[in-house]
Amino acid sequence: MYTICTESRTANSESVDLSEKLTKSQEIILKKENLTNAMVLEDGLVYIGEMENDEPQGFGILIYPNGSVLEGNWIKGKANGMCKLQYSQDEYYSGNILNNRFQGYGEYVNHNSSVYKGQWENNEKHGYGEEYFKNGSIYCGNFNRGMREGEGVYLSSNGSKYEGQFKYNKMEGDGKMFWGDGSTYKGQFQNNDINGYGVYTYPDGSYYEGYFRNGKRNGIGTLIRYDGYQVYGEWEDDKFYKN
After folding, report:
1. Is the pLDDT of residue 143 over 60?
2. What is the pTM of this model?
3. CATH code that applies to domain 1-100
């Protein structure tokens, strides 16, 4: 009933002694609040706050035996509205919750890995969102059931930029890639690599138009050098094979 999940994590309880799990800050909460308004729920959860008909109603704080703290508004025993779920000092969710589930706009912060700001549905990233990774990479675009899927832009920490379609967290479909040395590619992607038909432009202005496999020229294609000289024919493993 009181379980709230995110990022394959569960802030639900374990069958352990509550006093052994509460952090110092949570113990302060217990001392400051009126304990006549506190109640122990299933699985050792502790609720402190406003109640009605012996269930959480209004503003309140839910403390999990594993140390997580959920603070926000409650309606008929369930978290609803703007809330904050603090997993630890370095990890939390702040945003809208609907009937104990992340729903609508919210921010998930894990200082050890990434920050996500965007839409949620049923505890998963869903809709438009922006994800900032600790290594400096950034993704801005669509999510579907927790995965990058649809149109999006990925800025890599190495300076490259991809604009296009994603599927199952990978570059998949039509897209454009820009590299720091001035090279560009426009065409088809599959499994996070250049696969299919496209145009690759080199820093000196030369370009290849044709087929690729796993990032290399493979199949029929034409190389047009910066001086206008053309090489047309079949390519294999990034080398000209025959005309």
Report:
1. yes
2. 0.84
3. 2.20.110
